[in-house]
Write a structure and sequence with these properties.
There is one protein chain. By secondary structure, this protein is an all-beta fold. The chain is built from no helices and eleven strands. Strands 2, 4, 5, 6, 9, 10 and 11 form a seven-stranded mixed β-sheet that branches. The termini are far apart.
Length: 120
Amino acid sequence: QVQLVESGGGLVQPGGSLRLSCAASGSIFSINVMGWYRQTPGNERELVASITSDGRRRYADFVKGRFTISSDNAKNMVFLQMNSLKPEDTAVYYCNVGGRLDQLRSFGSWGQGTQVTVSS
């Protein structure tokens, strides 16, 4: 009922930048939180950054000072600006959105994932 479409991944050299975007669509009554996670082979998915509907941000220690999360609440979109990228940032990045479908039902949805590769 809620679809997420991600874009912006790709190949970048160490020290470079990328901007990820995620658009949520469907029967959305309200959104509480939007975030980005990442996963590498053999490892669990981990939180990169999140932002609540009132603008509170949370970052993983390994991206503080390098990544910035932002949102456009009117368009149900979330962005991740990634600067000073390192090879260890290489992963599949997933968008996650949580909110309500109506006054009774909540939802939590994942995007399909976008590959970010940092390599020279």
